[in-house]
Amino acid sequence: MNKRGYIIGLVAALMLALLVSAMPTAAQAPVMMQIVASGLNNPRGLSFGYDGALYVAEAGRGGPSPCAAGPVGEVCYGETGSVTRIDLHRGVQERIITNLPSLAGHDGSSALGPHDVAFSGPNGGYVTIGLGGDPDKRVANFGLGGAKLARLMKGAPYKGWKYTADIGAYEGKANPDQGAVDSDPYGLLALPGRAIATDAGGNDLLQIDDKGGITTLAVFPDRMVDAPPFLNLPPGTQIPMQAVPTTVALGPDGNYYVGQLTGFPFPVGGANIYKVPAAGGTPVVFASGFTNIIDIAFGRDGSLYVLEITKNGLLQAEQGGDPTGALIRIAPNGTKTEIASEGLVTPGSVAVGPDGALYVSNKSTQAGIGEVVRIQP
To answer: How many helices (H) and strands (E) does the chain have?
Structure first.
């Protein structure tokens, strides 16, 4: 299986239906979830802005045309992606950026489009626009609008946004992991004068400066894992699994922390969190034993919150299993605690609020019924 469409493949299937791994795991306590935004289209990344509002990237619901074959069926282009601002104090939500590119099946689910949003100061806002395919075919497959896919946007709320770095073109030229050319810009971290992004298709961590220049900070290599039984391979056979990095956060120690979804065969407990030096370099495993990580975020006390898009694995979800996700806390002493699971349906992102609560984009692979929930740990 190649890199293309790991994200869209996993969410479409869901719609059909070293260190920390050795640490003690505490029991989950009951939690209350409060819906703070609803009616969203494939809601993904969350970020608090300088104004205290919560922003959510909506991957959209695709559109009528042009259409092209995708990894798991036909996808069609439309400019239905957006970014929504949520005023938590007034209980008001508003789409402040609209008409962004989106790819989705005919029912609008499992979209690829705006995947994450992040801020650094009043004018340092960024949005990643996904693709999940060969960037050299963007325009041929989806018309002139396809050139907006696999890009980074920069701007500020109510002040205007523009497309800056072409992450897809960088993948096509540099191809840092030397695999099949594939780009799906996903996780995002905003810092003064630059943005840090994961390319889930390219299996790398990138730095983008304010002029749009891109450099590779780290490459996440394939790992050998046991082949699933349904492939009918000889016992003990191992196959390569790609990393598929989906999220990046700045740690209290100044290093970058990157969570991986994993590629096929999506083994339960096979996802790692990697630490990458701020100057770039070889990733090292910080924590392991997770399943299909979609986002991570650090709390003010140094705890790391880990969000799994599905806690029981993507393969079981493909077969009509439970698409329930999980939110896990890694305490500074290494203890893992499941904060929430019940009610989390293919969650897409987690953000730590100034009030100490956790905010999660929920139903992140569905159009029209996506939501953001508040969880008080």
So the answer is: 4, 28
Q: Which two structure tokens, joined as six digits, stand for 128?
A: 């990643």
Q: What is the CA radius of gyration of the chain?
A: 19
pLDDT at residue 158, rounded to an integer: 86
Q: Which CATH superfamily does the domain covering 6-375 fall into?
A: TolB, C-terminal domain (2.120.10.30)
13, pLDDT greater than 60 = no
Q: What is the pLDDT of residue 377?
A: 82
One-letter amino acid for residue 2 of the chain: N
Q: Tokens 């990697």 correspond to what residue? A: 274
Q: Is the pLDDT of residue 18 over 60?
A: no
pLDDT tens digits along 51-93: 999 999 999 999 999 999 876 778 999 999 999 999 999 999 9
- β-bridge partners, 213: none
Interstrand relation of 160-163 and 185-191 (parallel, antiparallel or unpaired): unpaired
Residue 310, both tokens: 């599905």
- Strand, helix or coil for residue 231: helix
Q: pTM of the entire structure? A: 0.92
Confidence at residue 123, expressed as pLDDT on a 0 to 100 scale: 83
SS3 60: coil
Asked if pLDDT for residue 26 goes beyond 60, the answer is no
Q: What angle do CA 253, 255, 259 make, to 5 degrees?
A: 120
CB 96 within 8 A of CB 119: no
Q: How far is CA 168 from CA 135, 206, 243, in A?
A: 5, 12, 18
Measure the CA dihedral 180/73/60/297, to 10°. Answer: -50
Peptide bond before 265: cis, by omega within 30 degrees of 0? Answer: yes
Bridge-based pairing of strands 336-340 and 25-26 is parallel
Q: Which of 253, 364, 351 shows the shortest CA–CA distance to 297?
A: 351
Amino acid at 292: N
- Spatial neighbors of 7 by CB under 8 A, at least 6 apart, are 112, 130, 132, 184, 186, 200, 244, 246, 261
Give me the pLDDT at residue 199, please.
98
d(Cα 224, Cα 215) in Å, to the nearest integer? Answer: 27
